[in-house]
Amino acid sequence: METQTETTNTVRRNQRIILFPLPYQGHINPMLQLANLLYSKGFSITILHTNFNKPKTSNYPHFTFKFILDNDPRDERYSNLPLHGMGAFNRLFVFNEDGADELRHELELLMLASKEDDEHVSCLITDALWHFTQSVADSLSLPRLVLRTSSLFSFLIYASIPLLDDRGYLSLSDNTMAPILDGLGYHDLSNNKRLEEQVEEFPMLKVKDIVKMGFKREKDGAGGMIDNMVKQMKASSGIIWNSFKELEESELETIRRDIPAPSFPIPFAKHFTTSSSSLLEHDRSFFPCVAQVEEKHFMEMVHGLVDSKQLFLWVVRPGFVSGSTWLEPLPDGFPGERGRIVKWAPQQEVLGHEAIVAFWTHGGWNSTLESVCEGVPMICWPFWGDQPLDARYVSDVWKVGVYLENGWKREEITGAIRRVMTDEEMRERARVLKQKLDVSLMKGGSSYESVESLVAYVSSF
Fold this sequence. Notes:
Blueprint: H1 4-12, E1 15-20, H2 25-40, E2 44-49, E3 64-67, H3 76-79, H4 90-98, H5 100-116, E4 120-127, H6 133-139, E5 144-148, H7 152-159, H8 161-166, H9 173-181, H10 193-196, E6 198-199, E7 202-206, H11 207-212, H12 222-234, E8 238-241, H13 249-258, E9 263-265, H14 295-308, E10 312-315, E11 339-342, H15 347-351, E12 359-361, H16 365-374, E13 378-380, H17 387-397, E14 401-403, H18 410-422, H19 424-441, H20 446-459
Parallel strand pairs: 1-2, 1-4, 2-3, 4-5, 5-8, 8-9, 10-11, 12-13, 13-14
Antiparallel strand pairs: 6-7
Helix pairs in contact: 5-6, 14-18, 19-20
GO molecular function, one term: quercetin 7-O-glucosyltransferase activity
Protein name: Putative UDP-glucuronosyl/UDP-glucosyltransferase
InterPro entries: UDP_glucos_trans (IPR002213)
């Protein structure tokens, strides 16, 4: 005899949800975790994706994949765009500018096919940065929800970019961004009192955190894309956050007060792992980093690790060091008996291992949340975007890590490693955050109820 859950899931299989992730690892992972969660609740799933950075579809036989926007290999709009770093985001400007007609056509075909199969397309869920999809969904009377893959706090900062620009913070990047990104010269910025000041509207931040985001408000730049993202998130039918209430409670209250669309905070890392959605082959022992550094900074990291005299695991992705294929800059004999270096590994599984005491991360939100989920203190070395905001929260608000805000000098690195390895108060705060998350996932907890509310909401369309 079928259980009530099985009967409900059978009924929901006639409801199809179309999901459209941004084609970058930190955005693909949570979207596919969300897709798995919704599939487990009985919905049929179609994934729209670009050919650029497409995931391994054989890992998801239960999903239907459709590839759009860049199917023509002769299309010169994409042929000369870089594959990595901030330059790769130019691809998104092209997609957002030119993708509406093709997306509308594909959605019309999917909606027609679903109707012929006695299905119903309930809604479209897109990455928040696909801001052009709101007008397409509206033209088809199709509800659009957005998945925001960064923190609620960073959204509030992004929504305040016009105000921050009026305060003159964004224009500081003209003269200070180069030394900030230079790492080794970053210590000189301590003499710039303006950069060390608190941000009046967000006193937990320093001005240099805003500068380090790297945004300007040009219409065709990252700042313009963020402006459009914020506007269209507010126009959406709902917002799904990769977070949980107890981690960002005051931010959630602010967003629910200011945005009429419902918000659903769900920590995806505790529902499904990310290994199957990786764009790299994996050694199932260690974990990845997706940023890129100059060789001189890389060597400071090496010396900082050596001088710390701690055991370590280090993933160095091919291309991580500018101008190198992989490990060419390493000195002979490194890492020795204290460490191991690999190209990729399932980060989430490693963080959950009892041997892990600390996590050195660029401060991207997925990595930050996974570390919180496992109760592991962090060393944060942010590059741009939301990463410096996350790092500041980790170090100064939650107090579960160290922010390398004065550069990547070996002495700072060694000191940070030793601190997170020995600071028991920090480790206890990290354990408490993990406990709050675990309670939120139990029946009646905030994350459990958020999932149930999302399922009921989508089922109502």
